[in-house]
From TrEMBL:
<keyword id="KW-0472">Membrane</keyword>
<dbReference type="InterPro" id="IPR050392">
    <property type="entry name" value="Collagen/C1q_domain"/>
</dbReference>
<dbReference type="InterPro" id="IPR008983">
    <property type="entry name" value="Tumour_necrosis_fac-like_dom"/>
</dbReference>
<keyword id="KW-1133">Transmembrane helix</keyword>
<dbReference type="GO" id="GO:0005576">
    <property type="term" value="C:extracellular region"/>
</dbReference>
<keyword id="KW-0964">Secreted</keyword>
<protein>
    <recommendedName>
        <fullName>C1q domain-containing protein</fullName>
    </recommendedName>
</protein>
<feature type="transmembrane region" description="Helical">
    <location>
        <begin position="21"/>
        <end position="41"/>
    </location>
</feature>
<feature type="domain" description="C1q">
    <location>
        <begin position="76"/>
        <end position="207"/>
    </location>
</feature>
<keyword id="KW-0812">Transmembrane</keyword>
<dbReference type="InterPro" id="IPR001073">
    <property type="entry name" value="C1q_dom"/>
</dbReference>
<dbReference type="Pfam" id="PF00386">
    <property type="entry name" value="C1q"/>
</dbReference>
């Protein structure tokens, strides 16, 4: 059997209208490759052509099983992890080193933030982003740290001015499963005043 005969029986009898764009693209490439072989070599062995067609048929099968789409599920988290919380009430004279508990939960996909303790617990190993905003009253201050398992990662300085001041910070950190992340008042200062009513917030998500 010649390449031309094999090509005619195998490819042209396919039902193109049942295939997606990627199938047609693969078939087009097949036509080009087989046509080139035929034109350049004049003929080729059936076993070699059969091996080429088996490889192409396997690729077509993968495309068809994926409904014409790339299966990229391995690149993404199966479960979304992210939270946004904020303070409803103003806080005053918070003790040195105490955890800031954001009591108003807006988003908590994965339920990894605990509104009773103010602690986010990493549900899985990975790269995470966290942000927090602190707004304080004129002539007051409220200095905070973001900590992972008690270790300071970043600091936020809001206050000591004659106007209301808002300060924000964003970090990107690697976490292990069950690592603890929270915002706390800095150890050397009492947290004099922090605005609630949505002016102060804490958020994070797995990248």
């Amino acid at each position: 059997m010649t390449v031309k005969e094999f090509y005619s029986k195998t490819i042209l009898n396919s039902t193109i209208d049942k295939m997606g764009f990627l199938n047609v693209l693969v078939l087009s490439c097949t036509m080009y490759v087989l046509g080139s072989i035929y034109l350049v070599a004049g003929h080729t062995s059936c076993s070699r052509t059969s091996g080429l067609m088996k490889s192409i048929q396997y690729q077509l099968k993968l495309v068809e099983e994926g409904n014409g789409r790339c299966d990229c599920s391995h690149r993404y988290n199966k479960h979304q992890i992210g939270f946004l919380v904020r303070l409803n009430k103003h806080l005053q004279n918070r003790p040195k080193g105490s955890v800031v508990i954001y009591d108003n939960v807006i988003t908590n996909d994965g339920n990894s933030y605990n509104p009773s303790t103010g602690i986010f617990t990493g549900p899985a190993d990975g790269l995470y982003s966290f942000s927090w905003t602190t707004t304080t009253r004129a002539n007051k201050y409220f200095f905070t740290d973001l900590t992972v398992n008690g270790n300071i990662i970043a600091r936020n300085h809001a206050g000591h001015d004659n106007i209301n001041v808002s300060a924000s910070h964003t970090v990107v950190v690697h976490l292990k499963k069950n690592d603890k992340v929270n915002i706390k008042v800095q150890d050397n200062f009492v947290g004099q005043f922090i605005y609630g009513d949505g002016w102060s917030s804490f958020s994070g998500f797995m990248i």
